[in-house]
Fold each of these.
Amino acid sequence: MAYARKHGLRYTVNAGDPHLRDAIAKHYAYPHMDQAANVCVTTGSQEATYAVIKTMLDPANDELLVVEPAFPSYAKMAALEGVHARSVAMREEDGFAFDAERIVSAITPATRMIVICSPCNPTARVMHRDQVQVLSDALLRRGNDPVWVLHDEIYREQTFVDDAGYFAQHYPYTIVTNSVSKSNALTGLRLGWAIVPRDIAPSLVKVHAWLTSCADTFAQQVALHVFATGSINEHAQWYANRQRHVSRALADSGLRHIVPEGSFYACVRLPERADSLKTAHALAEEHDVIAIPGIAFGRSFESWLRLSWVGDSDQLREGLARIASYSVDARLHAT
Amino acid sequence: MAYARKHGLRYTVNAGDPHLRDAIAKHYAYPHMDQAANVCVTTGSQEATYAVIKTMLDPANDELLVVEPAFPSYAKMAALEGVHARSVAMREEDGFAFDAERIVSAITPATRMIVICSPCNPTARVMHRDQVQVLSDALLRRGNDPVWVLHDEIYREQTFVDDAGYFAQHYPYTIVTNSVSKSNALTGLRLGWAIVPRDIAPSLVKVHAWLTSCADTFAQQVALHVFATGSINEHAQWYANRQRHVSRALADSGLRHIVPEGSFYACVRLPERADSLKTAHALAEEHDVIAIPGIAFGRSFESWLRLSWVGDSDQLREGLARIASYSVDARLHAT
């Protein structure tokens, strides 16, 4: 509490410490969104996402299109706001790669916002630059009221491909959310932000102000330090190295899987007709393996499990081995 | 960051660290709400209030009754949720004392929640035990679906009367919000909570979880320390001493005023027909005195100014003298 003793611990302005907002804007340097006035600092990216949905969507008219597989929070937040959410699932036969044409074909006249988490929780897929370009061009060609893209970049600092696409670099109706939770393993700090076009910022800040007043002043100081020292990327190399080990371990497991392009997840396919929830329970209870059932991320991901690989490498290999062995047993029982 | 280095900084469970929740519940020890399961830890009392309104009120049917003068946040939050808010103003001729009968008479069949901030921002009035009892009894006699009382206790640790009333001690349909912001001058920590009946907690925690996941883990540790060491009340004596000085300064000023019963505000009356917003601007620009115009707290408070007295004693006296002199001038100009 040395900081609090010296400076006290007062509210910042609602949108957050101007120095922090400036540091965030300058670091990502998105066209037309590189000023402090483009940034609203929030209680984690969760509040940022919530405030964006609340600010931008009209429950009476607007629809949120969720690109699946997806973390369930977007649809839940929309439901809390009375906003209708639909999903468009990427295809298993493509390994759930982001497919711009497929997203475009799911847009209806009511669609006012598309939410895309890339790098993706759960699939660990990254939307490549060419696909971001295709979707951006298609949205611009539509004319009419713009369809907004909410690009959840929460795993941006864990990206393992060179051609990752960023909507904010191509498409003017983009809102970006992120935080230091994943980049710096500070989930408990609850310090995130939204980067938005200048004319959206006042409304967003107003909603944020009534939700939580402002983000924790101490957490804002930590984040300022993170950006000032460049340590927003300090864990990136560690994740990149681990990703290579993880990819080998996945290949060695014999399980059908998706090679992680980003985030710190790895997904493996269960045998046909396996129930992912029951499997996850059985793995936890009988084999001491923690995996999130695919069904949590949408029906399209029902036959999959999501694994986290921030833990020990050997434990990951062991976990994969147990899943593989469980899968063989399950397949035997099924026949 | 010694704590973070040692323990990491992970999410807590959504409702907050069970030890902190237990400490809060045990400290206030409200009947039937003295368990960890009755507490949801939030990003300041602002998020607690917001989540309570969102959880408890149905925009299609329910009305929020705001006891005025009041901080504008309750009505703004209700508006953000599409919930109709009405206000019932306490009477100037009573010095804005809380008047249970007046509140009861303002209830309609649509009223589902009454929000009362006691000690009050802005009036510095405290709702006395007898008035809390009268309102509680009247609400219980009503039968039908209960009308909830949201008791905002944010200034509870700055109470200067012996007969302060607490709805949670009398009325089973009470929700209490508070934080360490005012009690421990830690506004920037953004650490608050709601104390709710057991059957309300799961819904409230769900709303809170989608708003912000959980409160800052570090801030929760600070709050745990605050409760474990009893320092939730450590500033109370300082405020009580200052209140005596402030009361004398108010009397000496010759201004019509309300003797503070709680909080760290003092309110003074402007001359007849004075515009509180214009007066506050003029005082700030021409006399270097910061006062919040009464109109910010409802039409009932238009002729008043709210002053904060956490600063220096002599400065408060000087500020009061300048307001008195400005008022005399204004009265002269008006004639």
Amino acid sequence: MTIDRQSLYRSLARPADSRILYYVIDGIGGLPREPGGGTELEAAVTPTLDRLADEGSTGLITPVAPGVAPGSGPGHLSLFGFDPLATLVGRGVLETLGIGFELRPGDVAARINFCTLDGRGNVTDRRAGRISSEVGAPLAERLDGIEVGGDVTCLVRHVKEYRACVIFRGAGLDGRIADTDPQVTGVPPEVPVHLDPAAERTAQLAAEFIAAATARLAGEERANGILLRGFDSFHGLPGLEELYRLKAAAVAAYPMYRGVARAVGMTVFESADTLASRVELTREALGAHDFVFVHFKATDSRGEDGDFDAKVEQIEAADQTLAALLALDFDVVAVTGDHSTPATYRAHSWHPIPVLIWGPHCRANGATGFGETACLQGALGQIRSMDVLPLVLAQAGRLEKFGA
Amino acid sequence: MTIDRQSLYRSLARPADSRILYYVIDGIGGLPREPGGGTELEAAVTPTLDRLADEGSTGLITPVAPGVAPGSGPGHLSLFGFDPLATLVGRGVLETLGIGFELRPGDVAARINFCTLDGRGNVTDRRAGRISSEVGAPLAERLDGIEVGGDVTCLVRHVKEYRACVIFRGAGLDGRIADTDPQVTGVPPEVPVHLDPAAERTAQLAAEFIAAATARLAGEERANGILLRGFDSFHGLPGLEELYRLKAAAVAAYPMYRGVARAVGMTVFESADTLASRVELTREALGAHDFVFVHFKATDSRGEDGDFDAKVEQIEAADQTLAALLALDFDVVAVTGDHSTPATYRAHSWHPIPVLIWGPHCRANGATGFGETACLQGALGQIRSMDVLPLVLAQAGRLEKFGA
């Protein structure tokens, strides 16, 4: 008899009085700017991170698999204890979660691109001339609420510029449907084709939605049609309370992170992108929660900009925020990132991410401070992102012994 | 929904202009000759390996599982990105690939031992008095081309001394057949027994082949019979182009390595066992390929001889070959071995193998040079052999991001 990983932890989880800070510094991992130099984290002055690393245990984590750079969705689901390869969430669902939309199990989501159609219905521009958000937002609103099949509502939300998403809500829906984007111009959009017999009706409803939406866009010069991609059913994920008996809250300034947090049952506190707001909302969250996920975004953004020095500055700001959060009195603190975003690489990368866990029962590391090279000798070793939460639960006295 | 490892990488792979050198120094890993001493690699003077290690990232790799010494087949398949426990290839197939025979999907291969039978058909020597290759080779040739069942050809190739292999080629064959070697003397060979109903006809054809072969050996004093072992169907493996969109070539002097390379779709360049030949063929391969696997054999052979100093010399020769290869201008270079062959152990061993990856986006190691102890603090950590290729693809800009 075999027990799977999720069932193992679920069976061992027990409630406790301990309070946990789960602090994600987005894209914290980096690379040296020049051979022999330090990374962004190694260049930054981070007295609080260094102290926690020295009092606690450090290591390096791989989010998905060696060589694989994760998006924010799988990066965070891994940190929340989910195996990212066993918890595939389609792009339509991720995009919808990412704008903070509250999906319900059974919903089918897809991405919308506004497009330009000529008089014969052929696509002439797959992105509708890259219309601005000012143009796209009211168009998305115009499509919201179309009813199809008598019992299915199509909720449309604007994402950015020529992009939006549609959520089909009703009974018996199935997201196994092919894209309608033909990928080339000069041909009409594809009709929605079901990839599984169970999705036949949903594909018909999607076709009805496209017809109704196109009618509502008639007369628009550039955005007079839509292309649908990334159809996916939202099955729901078990929440952190159900899995780990945690009362979990999220403090995050950006919709993507609030969306992922909500998907795993966290109570979401929408913060401003400031130290004061993060600390104040964390204080508030601690009233009714014992686990607070705090998200710090700017490190990733500066990495994507390719601005090494600005990322160093943001890591220092994240360190100062951490110092202020610690005044709220936690029993266990974890600090890490959802992925690396080296400024020299200007994108999410596959490099393992530094992690530290600070708590009452920590082994000493083989090197001091919090940096990529020091973490090579950390007491946690080189592990998977999904293993961080169980180690935190153990530090917090929240996992029973396995077996007699 | 779950995605398996191979599908994950296949879905993320994208072509790029980058050129990759994949340099396998067979059996490179070793052990100290005396307590406190260095390994063969640590004793060798290897300026090029040391420089690439310091500019790149190092680590240690385990080919199959802790404690398991691999043969050359699984050792190389792991380096080519295959999970060796999910890519079982039977001994008959490996032996056949190992002599450079070009198997086709659907072929069934088995190993042959020539044996001695007495007048009543009982086995008196399971290895035919260990006849020499000079005796064995023409006997194998004598058995080649036997036809059975009207539509199946039995191709026989000599391997070494009393060993050969047979390839059954025809439609509808199935290799799930038990060995005919009785493992003891004084009894007749077993008849081929099918282990699955689908293999019933193939087992009958194997019996026909044995009868015809024994007739052709009548009058031989020692090798007047055959025993068949390791029956296996060859299903074919997906190639590196299909899996990773690599145009892959192999430069190798020995048939075993050419066989494994061919099995994963590489174009094979048969080199002499010299620096000049390896470099010239690699240059030629780069004309139409972007990934070149170069195999260096003598390190393993000297390890199996138990000759520490000779293995040190061969590691130095491998280092000089590497220096010459680098002049051909690669974007990413990986150097490792398919297994360790410590001279003190005189055989393939289970010890993790030093690995280095050199490319544009490398983290610094915690120690300098290329040796087993330094690699303990390498930035790649301690990983599996099958994870080396994905890390190389990432360095080469050949893997997309996973998830939004």
Amino acid sequence: MAWQTTFEIRSRGRGTQEITQEISGVAAASGIACGVVHVFVQHTSCSLMLCENADPSVRVDPETLARRWAPDGDPASRHNNEGDDDMPAHARSILAGTSVSVPLANGRLLLGTWQGIYLWEHRADPQLRHIVVTVTG
Amino acid sequence: MAWQTTFEIRSRGRGTQEITQEISGVAAASGIACGVVHVFVQHTSCSLMLCENADPSVRVDPETLARRWAPDGDPASRHNNEGDDDMPAHARSILAGTSVSVPLANGRLLLGTWQGIYLWEHRADPQLRHIVVTVTG
Amino acid sequence: MAWQTTFEIRSRGRGTQEITQEISGVAAASGIACGVVHVFVQHTSCSLMLCENADPSVRVDPETLARRWAPDGDPASRHNNEGDDDMPAHARSILAGTSVSVPLANGRLLLGTWQGIYLWEHRADPQLRHIVVTVTG
């Protein structure tokens, strides 16, 4: 049995936005008690990730690190048609991934106490992002 | 059809511990022949990963690299309430992920000959880690 | 309900090869309308990833970055029995992952317009790679 829905979210440019509530709502609406909730973003320049949901600074520091992992305006980069943040956005999506899967029990996400689900926008400017949620069980 | 169980494992601080046997046992116990085994850790400061299971040094070198990817005691870091290894642990979990999914056939994990499943603890001190295994098929 | 198949692909050494068509074909053959397509490579020295499918340079730059993330012939590396690219290949597979999961709707992969599925070979020399595709729905 599988249940699927899609939704859109407008990012605010680089940074994270929590979507745990949206995904919890989808999980409950699925009517599936036990299984896995697969969350997928249909883009290659942003990520979905699990991160601590308590101290907001835990989602600021990854920006600092990511600028080292894939520097903006890297002179060695060839893919820069859309600007200095173009290739770094793709490289970050390769590193952090574009989907997360969370177990489902009794119709609720089996997240740890400090886990939240986040859209991590890698482009400098706001973007409209399409997310597909599939519940299998 | 889905089958789910949870177990705990006490890490020994930074480093890897193989959990392939535990996951194989869960897969067999599920009674599901064909599907996917989803393994999820309910924390944001450790990882689950697939890694070579032959030469132990292949699981030592990633520690060396990870100290470059996210240095302990980084002066640029803001999230350090729990010590010099606090933010690096979260950053490593973003990079290496907190879940793995392995195909299941005839009730057995379809791992390659050299693939093992590992808990990778990113905190310096030992921690109690909660793992959720969901088999869908 | 689950459906599974395996196929082999010979890589050409370091670099990417698109396998979107192969995975689309498997999805259609499964007869499953709605669910998740799980693609898994049975090795720890290559990756499966989603990446932009338009400008080929977007798949060249990650090679440049990956040589920084995990340098070949790193003097700090201990796992180098198979050469200077041995440990870097494992490190890259930890970073970029060895599986991707894509939602399925009406028997078709729900990829974004610019998303393709790629085998990313991390070893310098060509390798025979085994891929397992499992569709659950």
Amino acid sequence: RTLRIGLIPGDGIGREVIPAGRRILEALPTSLGLKFSFVDLDAGWDTFKRTGTALPDQTVETLKKECDGALFGAVSSPITATKGYSSPIVALRKKLDLYANVRPVKSVAPTPCFPDPIDLVIVRENTEDLYVKEEKTYDGPNGKVAEAIKRITESASSRIATIAGEIALRRQRVRETTGETARKSMVTVTHKSNVMSQSDGLFRTTARKALEQAKFKDAGVIIDDQIVDSMAYKLFREPSFYDVIVAPNLYGDILSDAAAALVGSLGLVPSANVGDGFAIGEPCHGSAPDIEGKGIANPIATLRSVALMLEFMNQEEAAAKIYQAVDANLAEGKLLTPDMGGKAKTDEVVNDIIKRL
Amino acid sequence: RTLRIGLIPGDGIGREVIPAGRRILEALPTSLGLKFSFVDLDAGWDTFKRTGTALPDQTVETLKKECDGALFGAVSSPITATKGYSSPIVALRKKLDLYANVRPVKSVAPTPCFPDPIDLVIVRENTEDLYVKEEKTYDGPNGKVAEAIKRITESASSRIATIAGEIALRRQRVRETTGETARKSMVTVTHKSNVMSQSDGLFRTTARKALEQAKFKDAGVIIDDQIVDSMAYKLFREPSFYDVIVAPNLYGDILSDAAAALVGSLGLVPSANVGDGFAIGEPCHGSAPDIEGKGIANPIATLRSVALMLEFMNQEEAAAKIYQAVDANLAEGKLLTPDMGGKAKTDEVVNDIIKRL
Ligand SMILES: CC(C)[C@H](C(=O)O)[C@@H](O)C(=O)O
Ligand SMILES: CC(C)[C@H](C(=O)O)[C@@H](O)C(=O)O
């Protein structure tokens, strides 16, 4: 069977890294028995300027009807409210009900700051919280007042915690095959229920309850709890302590960027937007207009996002091949793009990784 | 004139560090011509358990009627919603209209992670955003739904940006006296207006406008802009780039804990809750029940909070004395509490710093 992959480069360096993602899929060894076909899809700021919408219906329809998975690059967005513009990735997550944003953060090698290996994954709720974007503005006694709704539901909190637990189990299985059995599985629930006792309180209690399911308990998954400010502190003080971190949308957004700094570059950090039966791989970095067109964007976040997408399409073997090839490139540390302190071009890094597949 | 200071130790190590704050005030050289009197005030979880309220009216009234400033230790809070309990520090900030939470973060010495000096201050809005705590819970089609209001007003955004600008000016004046004139003053406005275009959009445009006032412009204060996730990333990648960071309440909460990790220990980071004509010094750390009663809490966050409080009471000379004594203790690096990798007791550190006044 041929797997059909939607390619949504978006803006800026999205157009340089998404082709790299396509190349690695095409280069996978035939022994895996996988075939891919591709469809190019529009979204982003340039699309908005051209067509008046940042996410054409056709993009959504094609993904729904034809595709088995997709890759999303990055989009530029206007910093001030622009009539008719709305972030296409936020919209896609909701329209395809991609309820989990999975962001693994793994260190390359010990550094003076972080001598112990960092290997954690942030599982961010992807459909609600302040991202419902229900806002209003009115005139108050002393000028304008704007309000936004933060919405937390029991159902979304339960399913995000459940997938976080499943990711913890999967990581545990992988560690069993590699013999790293000393490490315990743990899911850390992040919240600010000391201030938002109802909304974050609902997230916390629901997530904990979901994690108490027998399948997690029997496997020994530890349930841990952190207030978000203290989480930001501890993430930097002892990152190797963490395994799986589950968080509402906005905290997950902030914490995953913070975690990316721990491993040296956002250019290394992948993500997958995951729903039931569909996944969109998406590098965590943005459209980076400052380096656009120079051919020096780090392709690794995208290549790892391809692997993540494959994992959630149940193609774990193909995923493992890509991870290994990327890790081997990083371990050698010779071909590095400028964000990593090197001089390599995007294509050179991709070529090197393809050779290692 | 005698300055009257309210002392609110709260719970846990709050009871160990607030006495240290009192001691340093009593030990200030008489040449400064300052006298202090003190009043002990209740608040916190123990107070709640004893009296049914975490913030007795008498505490608020005494602060309003008698005090020129105050010191707040830390409080323990229940992790699950507890009928009648509400965070006393959050309430105090609102009741006394202490609209700015000022959190300077300064590195002790170069480290392998951060070879360049870190010297920044986070100015956190202290009265609104999600901290208005207007929440509701209802039954939705798939279980419970909880909503919280994030409220941003033009007036609060404007005054917080104005005080951030004033802090930038004051820091510039201090640098002029010490000859560090190469460093430019900058205020970085943090927001997530790419998603919350109305609420965070209002914060961003209002803050920028306030910073364009002639007094800031003429002094050359640069206005910078960062989306909160990217701010968390950059704060770790290049902390020495930042001078003053202004943020809505919740982002300020998260970013200031994250920034504390940059300088090694939350036990070093002070804050002041500042209103017009009143300030409460408050160490950034919590009540730390794990080390309570051992006499090993780091007093430095509190001593620096005393200095910050004095600054906002226009006692800059006394403040400078405390900062210098603390810096001298840290520069020598011999008497360190366990959070800093040492073995010193709270009292030993306080004695050492008092000697250096
Ligand atoms: C571009 C922006 C809307 C987006 C988000 O906040 O989710 C980005 O920061 C991300 O993390 O994918
Ligand atoms: C204890 C808590 C309510 C408080 C806050 O969130 O403001 C604390 O984290 C702080 O930063 O002072």
